[in-house]
Amino acid sequence: RDYLDALKGHDRTRIASVKTRLRAFGMQERAIDELVAKGQALDFVPYYADRTGTVSMIELRPGSYVKRGSLLTRIQ
Description:
This protein has one domain. It is built from three helices and two strands, in the order αααββ. The protein has helices at 2-9, 12-24, 29-38, and strands at residues 55-58, 73-75. The radius of gyration is 15 Å and the shape is elongated.
């Protein structure tokens, strides 16, 4: 929501700051673009794979806490 509020206020410094914070939390550029396109906060933050394929393993469940570097999915 903070990012959407910054966009509505047209404050370039705040927009850049909030966008940097979203990236620091691991939000991908494509997900940020989706946030802007929808114009409302996302219930779920999408994570897009960096390649095409089929998901063969998911080691992530709703509400899971993960550590940096953890294997979350496998794409074949």
